[in-house]
Amino acid sequence: MRVRDGMSATVLTVGPGHTLRSCATQMAERNVGAAVVHDPDAPGPGIITERDILRSVGAGEDPDKEFVAGHLTSKLVFATPEWSLEEAAAAMAHGGFRHLIVIDNGEVAGVLSVRDIIRCWSQDGATSVMSEQGSSPPPAA
């Protein structure tokens, strides 16, 4: 399967001047864990994730006074729709992040999350040795 098969083509986009609270509210309303940041003064799109917002709030910063521009995820990796889901998963594991912005012909085409990959692999019939042996999932923490 390819990234195009799993990505969300509907993308939440925010600006660098949005407050963290505004961004978090929009993310919660849409049940997404990341928003693409469009800054007309920047060379390309950025991304802010629930983890970025959590770090800020955990550090005692006021989400009504902190702006998206100051909390973007650094070291972005972009995917193309033609990447395999395995390539995307490897990039996420290697980089320690859970979302990829998908770029097609220089434009944002979507966002792919770890949850999207799991959904695709589950629907595709992917199995593991554990599931084939009839093991039950680990207990919830």
Summary?
The chain is 35% helix and 18% strand. It has 6 helices and 6 strands.
Question: What's the layout of helices and strands?
Answer:
Blueprint: H1 3-6, E1 13-14, H2 20-30, E2 34-37, E3 46-49, H3 50-58, E4 78-79, H4 85-95, E5 99-104, E6 107-113, H5 114-123, H6 129-132
Parallel strand pairs: 1-2, 4-5
Antiparallel strand pairs: 2-3, 5-6
Describe the structure.
- The model has no long low-confidence stretch (mean pLDDT 90).
- The chain is globular.
- It is an alpha/beta fold and 141 residues long.
- It has helices at residues 3-6, 20-30, 50-58, 85-95, 114-123, 129-132; strands at residues 13-14, 34-37, 46-49, 78-79, 99-104, 107-113.
Catalogue the unreliable spans: none
Q: Give the helix proportion (percent range).
A: 25-40%
**Content of β-strand:** 15-25%
Order of helices and strands: HEHEEHEHEEHH
Distance between the first and last residues' Cα: 31 Å
- Count of distinct strands: 6
Task: Throw out a few tags for this protein.
141 residues; alpha/beta; three-stranded mixed β-sheet; 6 strands; 18% strand
